[in-house]
Write a structure and sequence with these properties.
Two copies of one chain form a homodimer. With 318 residues, chain A is an alpha+beta fold. The structure holds a DNA duplex (27 and 27 nucleotides).
DNA sequence: TCAAAAGTGTTATCCTTACACCCATGT
DNA sequence: ACATGGGTGTAAGGATAACACTTTTGA
């Protein structure tokens, strides 16, 4: 018997913006269903590159033009793509879906009037990732379940400790994907039981574990957050999320929103200054609630003048 | 008319090892043809994950077992996959080939007896990337061609300067892929004219530009080198390339081979010491040519005990 | 005894961290 | 006047870069 299996390539976009000091993501949520990422099939006949295809269908689906775009990862595991709508090309064969995830950054969370499309705060899907107000309550809620999973396996326990900052381990904000994968492996993420065709467990922890998404979209979202948090430090990507003119506090809040940790104000500014990444505009923003703040701009011209790294993250210990 | 186009997914592996102080890559080179990477089709019906598929066919093709493996990037541009052998699944339709590149690291460049398979020094494909002996002669050879390409475009000139360390710009060893892409865009890489169906230009520069590979394999190789050079600094990946016991000089030579820059001996050692990444074994290696060196081992157990970063690269200015 | 490579000491400088305090505006 | 956020000075400690020198082997 001939193997009838074929492949369909799906493209998903994690579109990120900053809104009211929070990191938000563009989601598509049909009435009463789980949220998903903007998603579309890649047409091997028509599209010249993945990126062009991605830009085209995100615009079509959300009426939204993408700016900065980068590829994240290609996911091909069998069994983690179950509930995807059939992307059918009409031949009725069993198709294996491969999904290529992309990260896109935009300076404004423009509200689109596209149906079912909405910006959602990142923390909704990963409540335990937000340490801006100190150790999140969600983590305390998950901790017993993690220890339960680790049981008497020293390897499991070590991994849980390291990733979730248990027993005094330091928090490493970059390891979003590894944390999500552990939760999936431990059967704590609702997606895990769903992919196995079982009923959901751990209902009580639902709020602490974060909202699930269709297909493997939450995994792609975790990949995006990991990548972005890492990249902050070695490339000036935050500025892709800022308007032309911004205050230093707004910049700091944006970095904090992405990294999910509180930063030390003066050390953050000193690092900025030393790197000569921004430049004061002389104009003031009076809507700050206190003393008006000077507006700054990113010296984009640096990018073609010299190698330019990202920002250091001087932590504020609470 | 119905679009008959389908997709085939190809997996390629960049398998890296250290041999005689040089970084080498596993290549497949049928008699009289260009070199390529170990490569195979992904079977959507049979393979559960990409990684399993990759391990299986690399072993089949080169009789070689992979250790550390990570995904690099998925390439899907039309027109850069021209000379790939037909991966035919027998339906005769025009298939679009998508290639997923992987990076694999191994501690020993085991010679396999598989036909057409050989280890090749990395510098053979990228002669201008090796700065261990100072600014490489290959760069001086390419420089006029780069300036020629830049012409009177300030953007092109700025990019060339930044990437190829012209006019006093510092060398950034990580940007291997960007450099290769510029050479491709400039029509200097032989692959560029080939993909356009034209005759090769720049024969005179051939040695300085490096040996071309089939399909987009040199692009995948450049991606691998970029990733590996970057990763050196924030993950202890070098140790995946070392045997159980090694001397500190051998470790330094391995790092230098990958990064392509000379390092400052004592500062390199001090950084190692501070990080407590390695541990002396008390045993000596007498085959060093001079005073015997103490053997060390990587404290692998650290990986599950605390977050562990890579090595700093204290440059030795010549 | 000399070449070759291993291994160590020390200083100046810069960056990071961690303090605490003053400034300009709206209410 | 006081609350609110904007913006600054400075000193201690640690990391890095740069210098040159001693040690142990084989030929």
């Amino acid at each position: 018997m001939e193997a009838a299996a074929g492949v369909v390539i799906g493209l998903s976009a994690v579109v990120v913006a900053i809104r009211d000091g929070d990191a938000v993501v563009l989601t598509v949520r049909p009435r009463g269903q789980l949220a998903g990422l903007p998603f579309g099939p890649f047409d091997p006949g028509g599209h010249r590159t993945f990126e062009l295809a991605l830009r085209a269908f995100v615009t079509a689906q959300t009426r939204f033009d993408l700016g900065y775009v980068e590829q994240l990862y290609t996911f091909g595991d069998k069994g983690r793509d179950a509930p995807l709508a059939d992307l059918g090309d009409g031949d009725g064969g069993a198709k294996r879906v491969i999904s290529v995830g992309y990260l896109a950054l935009t300076p404004q969370a423009v509200d689109t009037d596209a149906p079912d499309t909405a910006w959602a705060a990142w923390s909704r899907f990963f409540p335990y990732e937000d340490w801006r107000e100190g150790r999140p309550a969600a983590l305390a809620a998950i901790e017993p379940a993690l220890r339960d999973w680790a049981g008497s396996s020293p390897e499991h326990l070590a991994r849980a400790r390291l990733l979730f900052a248990l027993d005094g381990s330091p928090w490493n904000e970059e390891r979003v994907l590894e944390r999500y994968e552990l939760l999936y492996e431990a059967g704590l993420a609702p997606e895990a039981s769903r992919d196995r065709g079982e009923a959901a467990e751990h209902e009580a922890l639902a709020a602490a574990l974060g909202e699930p998404m269709i297909s493997d979209h939450r995994r792609i979202l975790a990949t995006a957050l990991s990548r972005l948090r890492g990249k902050l430090k070695y490339r000036p990507v935050v500025f892709e999320l800022m308007p032309e003119a911004f205050t230093l506090s707004a910049l700091q809040r944006a970095v904090e929103a992405i990294a999910g940790v509180p930063l030390h104000k003066q050390n953050f500014r000193r690092a900025l200054e030393r790197a000569e990444l921004v430049e004061g505009l002389g104009r003031l923003d009076a809507d700050t609630g206190g003393r008006p703040a000077e507006l700054h701009r990113f010296r984009r011209e640096l990018l073609s003048a010299r190698p330019v790294s990202g920002l250091s993250l001087p932590l504020l210990r609470d």
